[in-house]
Amino acid sequence: MLSLLLVLKVLVTLSPYQFLVEEIGGEGVEVSVLVPPGVSGHTYEPTPKEMLKVGQSAVWFRMGESFEDKVLPVLKHSHPDLLVVDLREGISLIYDHHGCPHCRGAGSEDLHFWLSPKNLAQQGKTIEAALHKLSPDQTFHLKEFLKKLSEVNN
C-alpha cells in the first residue's frame, strides 16, 4: 500500500530557521524564507509578491523582527487560518538597551537567540509541537535533531 506524505508548507522569517525546520520536519515540510538572502531582516519590508508566498503556508515561525508586527495584521486578515508561532516563546531573552539598535526587537531583546544551543533546543520543541498540531499523524525528527545538537554542543 502506498502512503501519501502530507507536505506542510512552512514559512520562516530568516534562513537559520529554514535549516531548523527542515531538520525537524524532514520530507514532511517545504520551507520558504520570508527575508531573501543578502537582505537585512532588520530593515526588510515584504513586497506584495512575497506576501503571496505567505498565503500558501500553513504556519509561520516568526522571531521578533520589527517588520513582523507590521505584517501580522495584514496576514491574519487575508489568511485567517495561518498558524503563527513566535519562536521567542519559552526562551530567556537577553535585553540590551545600549547595544546595536538594528539587532534588537521592539522590546530591546537580542534577536540572535538561535546562537544558543539551549534556546535552539527549546525552539525545536516549539516547532515540532506546531507541526504536530497541523499534521498529528506525521512523524517528525525532534529527537534526532536534539541528539545532533547535543553532540555538537559537547
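the 2nd protein, sequnce then structure:
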Amino acid sequence: ARFVFIDEKENFRSKKSLVDAFYHLNTYQSDIEYKRYLGKYFALGSGATMHVIRADIASYEEIEYQPEASIWLALAYTGLKTGIKSSLNLRQDFSKGYQVPFCPSVSAVLPVSKYIAATFSVSRNFRVPTMNDKYWIPGGNPDLKPESSWNMETGAEVQLHTGDVVRSKINISFYNLFVDNMIQWVPGSSGLSSPQNVQKVWSRGIEISSRSDWKYAGFNGYFKFGYVYSPSTYIKAETGQSNILDKQLIYIPLHKVQETFFIGKGTCYTLFSFSLNGKRYVQSDNSAWLPAYSLFDFYAGTTLKAKKVSFRLQASIRNVLNTTYQSVLYYPEPGRSYSISLIISK
C-alpha cells in the first residue's frame, strides 16, 4: 500500500509574448496491491487506485479537480517447461462525469520452435479527456466525449543468433486499432487549435524491431533498429466532412525509423542515436504538411563506484547536425544543444 502527494509550482515568464503566469498543481494518489502465487505456474494480482488532481492554472477559468479511481484483477500463467506465457487482465475505471466501460485484455506468448515465439494480444481501452483538453483557454472544449477503442496485435519474436560473441533477435508485429470519438487537437481557420472528437479512426500497421548484443576483446555493445509503418485514417466523419475520409491523421507520420548504437569498455561508453520521421499532415484533408526530418544525437559518459555509491557523468550533444524542423506547426524545435549531467545513486 502506498500514498503519494505531489505539490508542483511553476512561474512561467516570457518577455517576448508578455506572459507572466503561475501554475499550482496538487496530486493525491493512493494504491493498494495484492499478489499471490498459485502453485508453480499461476500468479494472481489485484489492486485499487484513487487519484485526484487539483489544478490552479492561469489558463483555466477557475480551480479544477479531476478525481479518478480504478480496480483491477490479473491472472498470469508461466509454463516453465513449455515456455508459454499468458495473462488475463480485468479492469474497471471510474472518472467523474463519465461512464467508463469494463476494459479487459488478454495476451499470450506461444513458442513455435526453439528460436521462434508467436505473440498475441487483444484489449479494450478507454481514455477520458485531459484537464487541458477540457479547460485550457483559449481552445479547450468542455463538451468532449471520451475515447473508446479495441486494439488487436499479433506478431513473432525470432532469435537470429545466440552465440557467445553475438546475440541477436528480431520482433515483427502487426496491429489493428479502431477508435471511436478519438480526441485530436485540430487547427481551426484562425490558426488556433482546439480538441475535437473524430468520429471513427482506423489505425493499423507493422512494427519491426531488432537488437544485436556483442562483446569482444573487452568491448561490449549493442545495435537497435526500429521501423514503424502506421497508416491511420478517418473511416467515419461528421456530415459535411467527407473530404477527410481515408486521409491520414494529422501529425502521425506514415514512416518512422529509430537506430541506436552503443559501445563501451570498462566504465566508459558512447552512444549514437538516429531517428527519421516522415512527413506529417497538418490539415485533416491532407492538403498541407510538415516535411520529413532526421535527427542525430551523441552521448558519452563514464560510471565510477565508491563504496556503496555510484556516479555517472554524461555529456551529450542533441541534434548534432543542427537540423531545422517542427514537430507542431509554427512551433520550431531547438537546434543543436549541449548538456552535462551527473547522476548519483546508491
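The chain has a mean pLDDT of 92. The longest helix spans residues 131-135.
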